[in-house]
Structure formats: structure tokens, C-alpha cells
Amino acid sequence: MACVLAIETSCDETAVAIVNNRVCCSSVVASQILVHRQYGGVVPEVASRSHVETINEAIAQAFVEAQLNWGAIDAIAATCAPGLVGALLVGLTAAKTLAMVKQKPFLGVHHLEGHIYASYLSQPELEPPFLCLLVSGGHTSLIYVKDCGRYEILGETRDDAAGEAFDKVARLLKLGYPGGPAIDKLASSGNPKAYALPEGKVSVPGGGYHPYDSSFSGLKTAVLRLVQKLEQETSELPVRDVAASFQESVARSLTKRAIACALDYGLNTIAVGGGVAANSGLRQHLQNAGAQHNLRVLFPPLKYCTDNAAMIGCAASDHFNRGHTSPLTLSAQSRLSLTEVMQLY
Ligand code: KG4
Ligand code: ZN
């Protein structure tokens, strides 16, 4: 059994959690959305400064909520890659300093492995192998989860990530930041079949299309053209119908690829992770398609879909139980493939 204090500061949430294997004892998430909203997106320097201002309070709060003290903590973990380097450094430095002062083992955690572990938090009986559809602001991947630290990437986006597409289309529709939740809300009262939008297929050499890779930049351009056309034709843009049609296209494209991938690789469980896993259109499409093909589809609760430290603590617990620890010389990295996770230990 490993009780881990985990810190996540890879982007715009200052998050701290205490996790005992697959049980979350406390999870504190201090969102910076209000700070970044005025700029229309995350400003890296502002994010780093904001993490510095909040981190100590968030750590103290995690202990209060868990009703635990330092004696209960077996190891200290922090996200070290991928992400904004300045932002990662804040959480990583806090974790390494605490590990040194409190004389506890330290573990660096890959942010995307954390998103995969969000599914273990909500389904403690889940065991590999399974397929993870990871859809966040920076990634859109289909991952064959073989074991702790052992992943194979079967599908990826060739351009924008799904969450990035939501954010860009929301900006285009003047819905503000972050775009995903705003589009999701509007889409619930719009007509998803109002406008036919492209699926974003990825051609492969020799002809045909890649079965699992996605592309969202063409879809974003198609929405831009549609909005320009509608603005000329109508006095009031039918925002709800545009949002619903866009969401429908993303949800259908992701569902088709995830189902094909699970069936081709003989995996009977699809666990979804990342901020876009909160999307109601995707939830509905994938659940329905999963039921049709006799596949189990798992969506974590919303609090574990978007960035949080509980998922980081859960991943760290599993590594720690296997004897993995990281050196205190570990540095923050803006990029690191999920297939290279074991470099951290
Ligand atoms: O996983 P996450 O919190 O941070 C990253 O690691 O990127 O994901 C953030 C992304 C943002 O692009 C946000 O717009 C999107 O997730 N998102 C959503 C929803 N909630 C958050 N996208 C669609 N529908 C939602 N309900
Ligand atoms: Zn994330």
C-alpha cells in the first residue's frame, strides 16, 4: 500500500491530492481559468506565477481535507512532463524540496499516464489490457494500455488535439476560454444535424485512410467558412446549431476510431480520459456504439477528466508499489512520449 502526496501544475490548474493506491483521500484543484480568460487562453508566465502563489495553500488544504498528517505519506510525486516547462517546474520543485526535507521517496509522473490512471480511480477493479482514448487540450491518442508504464500508441491526431479544436472553434464563435464546456452547453439545445461538417480523415501512402489517426484542422476551417457564410446570409448566427454540428462531428470521428481500434486489437474495454472526456456528445456516442459492439466503455467522473492531482497520485502509487522512484535530479520536460515513461524511474 502506498499513500502518495501528488502535485500537478503542468498547465493552468494548481492541483494537490493525497491518494492511497486507487483511493482518493483528498483532491484540491485551484483553477486559474478566471486569470487566463481575459487573455483568451493560457499565458505561460502568468500560469507559473499563479502556481507559485497557490501551491503552499493547496498542499495544506490537501492534508486538511484528507485528515492526515506527514506521518501517513509514503512518497511524494509531481507531474514532470509533458506541459509548460515553467509551470511544471513549480510543482516539481515543491515536490522535490518536500521529498528532501521530509526524507520521503520522490516520483516524477507523466501527465498522460495520469489521465489513464483517472480510470483506475473511478473503477478500482479495472486491470490492463484495455484501450484508452485520451482526449485533452494537447493530445488525442488511442493507447494500448499493457501494464503500468507500458503503452503503445495506436492512433494520434496529425494536427490539432480534440480539446484544442473545441477551444479554437469556441473562440471563433466568441464563446470565450475554455471552449469545450461552453460548446458542450450550447450544443445541448442545438441541432447536431443542422450542418454537415467533414470528418477529418488522414490519408496514408498507397491510398486509403489511417483507421485510427484523426485530424481536426480541416474541421476547424470548415466551421470558419460556415460561420463566414452564415454571417453574410443571416442577421443572427445560429450558434447553438453550429456548436451542436461541430460537437457531433468530433464525437462521431472519435467514436468510429476508438471502436475500430478496440475491435481490431481484441480489447473489450475502452477507458476514456482527458478534458474532452467530459463532453456529453462524446459520452453519448461512445456509450451507444460500445453497447452495440458489446464493449465496456468507461468515462471517469468529470472531476477526474480535467486536470487534477488525484490521477497523478494514483499513477505514482502504482509505480511506487513496483519499487520505482525517481532521482531528485529529474527535470521538467515540455515533451516526452508516453512510450518513454520508464525513463523517469
Ligand atoms: O485534460 P485537460 O484538463 O488539460 C490538458 O491536459 O490539456 O483538458 C483541457 C481541454 C480543453 O481544451 C477544454 O476545452 C476541454 O478539455 N474540455 C472539454 C469539455 N471540458 C473540457 N471539451 C469538450 N467538452 C467539454 N465538456
Ligand atoms: Zn491534462
Low-confidence stretches: none
CATH superfamily of the largest domain: ATPase, nucleotide binding domain
Quantity of strands, as a count? 10
Our count of domains comes out at: 2
**Overall geometric form:** globular
Instruction: Round the mean pLDDT to the nearest integer and report it.
Output: 96
Commentary on this structure:
By secondary structure, this protein is of the alpha/beta class. Helices cover 43% and strands 19% of the residues. The chain has helices at 33-37, 44-66, 85-102, 111-122, 162-172, 179-187, 217-233, 239-264, 280-292, 302-305, 310-321; strands at 3-8, 13-20, 23-31, 75-81, 106-110, 130-135, 140-147, 150-156, 269-273, 296-298. Helix 2 (44-66) runs parallel beside helix 3 (85-102), helix 6 packs across helix 8 (239-264) and helix 8 runs parallel beside helix 9 (280-292). Bound molecules: 5'-O-[(R)-(carboxyoxy)(hydroxy)phosphoryl]adenosine and zinc ion. Zinc ion (ZN) is lined by residues 111, 115, 136, 274, 307. 5'-O-[(R)-(carboxyoxy)(hydroxy)phosphoryl]adenosine binds at residues 11, 136-138, 163, 166-167, 178-181, 184, 274-276, 278-279, 306-307.
Secondary structure topology:
Blueprint: E1 3-8, E2 13-20, E3 23-31, H1 33-37, H2 44-66, E4 75-81, H3 85-102, E5 106-110, H4 111-122, E6 130-135, E7 140-147, E8 150-156, H5 162-172, H6 179-187, H7 217-233, H8 239-264, E9 269-273, H9 280-292, E10 296-298, H10 302-305, H11 310-321
Parallel strand pairs: 1-4, 4-5, 6-9, 9-10
Antiparallel strand pairs: 1-2, 2-3, 6-7, 7-8
This protein binds 5'-O-[(R)-(carboxyoxy)(hydroxy)phosphoryl]adenosine and zinc ion.
Zinc ion (ZN) binds next to helix 4.
